[in-house]
Design a protein that fits this description.
three-stranded antiparallel sheet; alpha+beta
């Protein structure tokens, strides 16, 4: 394989993500060593306090 071919091959990542501690966790790929941040909650989900607050406001408005 030429150097150019090696550079174009993409890793099929296998992320090892640290335990949740705050809004993001750091993950490292077992295969290539790439490091990336992962969100510990999805906006609007039950895990997101602001999202649940907004949901309660919408429910209160719709019932009045």
């Amino acid at each position: 394989m030429t150097q150019e071919a090696v550079e174009t091959v993409q890793c099929t990542h296998h992320w090892q993500i640290e335990s949740p501690n705050g809004p993001v966790s750091i993950g490292r790929c077992k295969r290539c060593g790439e490091i990336r941040e992962f969100n510990n909650s999805i906006q609007g989900s039950g895990w997101d306090r602001q999202g649940s607050h907004n949901r309660r406001l919408r429910q209160a408005k719709s019932s009045s």
